[in-house]
């Protein structure tokens, strides 16, 4: 019996409100940014930005450009970054913008590579930073922080003035990259103070078409002054160790019209405390700034985020109605060493969570040392969709089905929605959530009725099984240069121009056979080698496709045009990048991926040599050369850089990569667990690392290639790495390997002293949440083995 799911798209609502919000772009810009009540526009067209958080002060400045290029290749169009006050002015009166604190250089690098920039200027930011980013000297003053207390506003005004000086000339009026500025963070009950801060920032010379504020927790905002931005995480580090998976996370895997998330920031504001009525949704679009790209770990709670969790969350939010995908974090980092004290959030500073001293990896799509994670590829596939079809999706309203899940604990009702403008649309399905797997749905079909009087679409022609764990987006009545694609049971990836025709690339879903339904009235003839082509009910059905690089359906349209539909298998689609390569727009497939930026191409692969194809194939395919540099005929060098990942299938090269690890001292008994605020477990005191920690030494070869990672497989509780007496890396055990970037370590001291590891065991009865995947490692502290993973440089030339 077919499991029929029905939905009727209503008559389109009245046009969105425009001109009702005082957000204005700089005069004379060629692509003015505006805000309607339902979506954003840029240059007069609907605009669907993708922003990713990257904290420049948590990453070496020498590598910023490479990492920004990787973010751009992942589909990020805007880089968001907290301007963390304590990182810049730990000592009162000495504001530093040098080295890794060079805010202006970071913004200029964004501009150089066509990335928008969003400074989140605080002054309080949270970001798991000491005091939420406020300097110790400020808190020592007789003032009330985060209020209009003049004694607080005076140093804030000086701080904003310093930021304004750094960003002078980088606003839109001067062709700069700043498209938005966030004021404060998670301040839910003081709209007057938020307005004061905005006016102070403007007086300091900061300008942007969009001024934003986080909007969770029933925030109260000054009317029409700040654009409310929302969020949603797959997991939490700030809830109780024994609290289980939070309902505030579970709800993000359902299609709803609810924007607010009372769980974010609930470590400092209980979920029972709210600012008031939510921001009016009829005046603002559904925009986000903190969709969880991963999650930090606290000592008492160490959640593990899987790539599918991140991918399903992102796609579900698009289906719910998001018109701005903003991720926190998209790129991990490392806390800088403080001059006076450590700079992490901790019990010692009165916060309810103890964070690692150094690591802020966040399990992000790009890791603490620039590692590519599988979540990077999951999100990139969605960002390719938004790059080419976001202008269609953004104005579309979300519509929920007739049969909806019965509450947040309903695992049996299929979760789906449609976004539509009344004439066309996109169907979204999410059958994945963390911790509690969702069952497959056999014999499933969908009926979507449109309000224009045409027959409803019932798809696919033969019901399918929606696999457990699947999430996808299918197009409905999509116009492609005169061809109407009534549906495809495959997700659009991108459009490319090839040999005078448009080719739409689609990604199949594992377990669902691709089917294309073309409106017969728009088709003259179809060629689909190896597939079945039938005509029925005014449609041309293409079935039996074997997805892959040769699954190209060629269509001559009724109006004399040509269109191609290329259906890739799911694994290949996740390797797809696009960009101007070899003199024409190309789709490039690589084992692990390719990065484009103007004439420069970067490839990363876990293989000994990168493997890639170019579609459509150029007359002479490019070849991977040896490590020597070869120049293209036009003198333009096209570089390939091979970088490691840490996901399934990632492996070192052909050399022996094992490193000898010397046990100096075995672990002693696990220390007694101390507690801090809210009775939560605290990080063991420094004295325990001398008394109870297992100690190892690793002698690192001095001839390792640049970019080498040391990967340590270990068990225990807390691990710290030292060169001499200097702490250089740390981690709380959650079952994942521990990566250390050798480029970050002091080379001379490393050669002289080697790398020392100290590992504490975890008490069996400690009130600490460790993921089940980590296994039972209580009362142990040991290194299983260590290896190095290298980055190689390659060069190629265009054919």
What's this, in brief?
Helix content is about 15%, strand content about 30%. By secondary structure, it is an alpha+beta fold. The protein has 4 domains: about 15-390, TIM Barrel (Alpha-Beta Barrel), CATH 3.20.20.80; about 400-575, Beta-galactosidase, domain 2 (beta-galactosidase, domain 2, 3-layer Sandwich), CATH 2.102.20.10; about 580-645, no CATH class; about 660-790, Jelly Rolls, CATH 2.60.120.
Tag the structure with descriptive keywords.
single chain; 799 residues; alpha+beta; TIM Barrel; beta-galactosidase, domain 2; 4 domains; 8-stranded parallel beta sheet; 8-stranded antiparallel beta sheet; disordered C terminus
Uncertain spans? 580-584, 594-655, 792-799
Instruction: Based on Cα principal axes, name the global outline.
Output: globular
Distance between the termini: 55 Å
Rg calc? 27 Å
- Write the CATH fold name of the largest domain: TIM Barrel
**What is the makeup of the main sheet?**
8 strands, parallel
Count of individual domains: 4
Q: Enumerate how many helices there are, as a single number.
A: 12
Name given to the CATH homologous superfamily of the largest domain = Glycosidases
CATH architectural group of the largest domain: Alpha-Beta Barrel
Count the beta strands. Answer: 46
Class inferred from helices and paired strands: alpha+beta
- Strand order within the widest sheet? 7-6-5-12-11-10-9-8
Mean pLDDT: 88
């Amino acid at each position: 019996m077919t499991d029929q799911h029905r939905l009727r798209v209503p008559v389109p609502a009245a046009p969105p409100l425009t001109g009702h919000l005082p957000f204005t772009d700089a005069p004379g810009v060629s692509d003015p940014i505006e805000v309607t009540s339902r979506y954003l526009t840029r240059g007069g067209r609907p605009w669907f930005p993708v922003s990713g958080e990257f904290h420049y002060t948590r990453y070496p400045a020498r590598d910023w450009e490479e990492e920004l290029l990787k973010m751009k290749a992942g589909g990020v169009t805007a880089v968001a970054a907290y301007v963390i006050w304590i990182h810049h002015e730990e000592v009162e009166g000495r504001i530093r913008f040098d080295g890794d604190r060079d805010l202006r250089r970071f913004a200029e690098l964004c501009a150089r590579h066509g990335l928008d920039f969003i400074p989140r200027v605080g002054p309080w930011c949270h970001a798991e930073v000491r005091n939420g980013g406020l300097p110790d000297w400020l808190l020592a003053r007789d003032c009330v922080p985060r209020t209009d207390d003049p004694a607080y506003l005076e140093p804030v005004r000086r701080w904003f003035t310093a930021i304004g000086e750094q960003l002078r000339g980088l606003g839109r009026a001067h062709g700069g990259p700043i498209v938005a500025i966030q004021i404060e963070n998670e301040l839910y009950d003081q709209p007057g103070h938020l307005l004061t801060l905005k006016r102070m920032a403007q007086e300091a010379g900061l300008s942007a078409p969009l001024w934003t504020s986080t909007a969770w927790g029933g925030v109260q905002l000054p009317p029409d002054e700040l654009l409310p931005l929302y969020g949603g995480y797959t997991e939490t580090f700030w809830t109780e160790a024994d609290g289980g998976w939070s309902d505030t996370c579970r709800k993000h895997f359902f299609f709803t019209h609810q924007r607010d998330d009372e769980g974010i920031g609930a470590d400092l504001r209980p979920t029972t405390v709210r600012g008031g009525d939510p921001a009016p949704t009829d005046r603002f679009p559904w925009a986000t700034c903190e969709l969880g790209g991963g999650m930090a770990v606290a000592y008492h709670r160490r959640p593990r985020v899987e790539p599918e969790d991140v991918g399903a969350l992102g796609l579900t939010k698009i289906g719910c109605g998001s018109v701005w995908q903003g991720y926190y974090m998209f790129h991990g980092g490392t806390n800088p060493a403080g001059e006076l004290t450590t700079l992490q959030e901790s019990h010692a500073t009165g916060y309810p969570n103890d964070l690692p001293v150094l690591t802020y990896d966040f399990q992000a799509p790009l890791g603490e040392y620039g590692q590519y994670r599988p979540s990077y590829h999951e999100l990139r596939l969605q960002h390719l969709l938004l790059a080419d079809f976001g202008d269609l999706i953004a104005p579309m309203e979300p519509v929920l089905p007739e049969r909806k899940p019965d509450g947040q604990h309903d695992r049996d009702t299929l979760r789906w929605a449609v976004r539509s403008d009344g004439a066309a649309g996109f169907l979204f399905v999410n059958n994945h959530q963390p911790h509690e797997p969702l069952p497959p749905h056999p014999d499933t079909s969908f009926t979507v009725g449109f309000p224009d009087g045409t027959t409803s679409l019932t798809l696919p022609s033969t019901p399918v099984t929606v696999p457990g764990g699947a999430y996808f987006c299918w197009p409905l009545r999509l116009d492609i240069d005169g061809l109407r694609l009534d549906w495809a049971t495959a997700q659009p990836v991108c459009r490319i121009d090839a040999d005078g025709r448009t080719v739409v690339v689609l990604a199949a879903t594992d377990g669902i056979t691709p089917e294309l339904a073309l409106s017969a009235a728009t088709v003259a003839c179809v060629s689909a080698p190896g597939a079945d082509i039938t005509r029925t009910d005014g449609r041309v059905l293409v079935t039996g496709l074997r997805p892959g690089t040769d699954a190209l359906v060629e269509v001559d349209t009724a109006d004399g045009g040509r269109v191609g539909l290329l259906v890739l298998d799911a694994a290949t689609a996740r390797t797809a990048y696009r960009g101007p390569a070899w003199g024409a727009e190309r789709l490039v497939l690589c084992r692990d991926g390719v990065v484009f930026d103007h004439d420069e191409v970067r490839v990363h692969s876990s293989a000994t040599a990168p493997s890639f194809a170019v579609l459509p194939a150029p007359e002479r395919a490019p070849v991977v050369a040896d490590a020597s540099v070869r120049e293209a005929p036009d003198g333009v060098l096209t570089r390939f850089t091979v970088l490691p990942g840490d996901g399934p299938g990632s492996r070192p090269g052909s050399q022996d990569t094992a490193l000898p690890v010397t046990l100096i001292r075995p672990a002693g008994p696990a220390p007694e667990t101390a507690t801090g605020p809210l009775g939560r477990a605290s990080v063991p005191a420094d004295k325990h690392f001398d008394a109870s920690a297992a100690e190892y030494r690793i002698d690192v070869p001095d001839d390792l290639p640049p970019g080498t990672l040391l990967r340590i497989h270990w068990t225990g509780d807390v691990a710290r790495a030292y060169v001499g007496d200097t702490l250089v890396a740390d981690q709380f055990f959650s079952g994942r390997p521990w990566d250390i970037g050798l480029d970050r370590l002091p080379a001379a001291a490393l050669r002289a002293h080697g790398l020392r590891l100290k590992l504490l065991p975890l008490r069996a009865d400690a009130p600490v949440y460790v993921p089940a995947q980590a296994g039972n490692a209580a009362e142990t502290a040991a290194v299983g083995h260590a290896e190095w993973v290298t980055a190689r440089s390659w060069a190629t030339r265009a054919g």
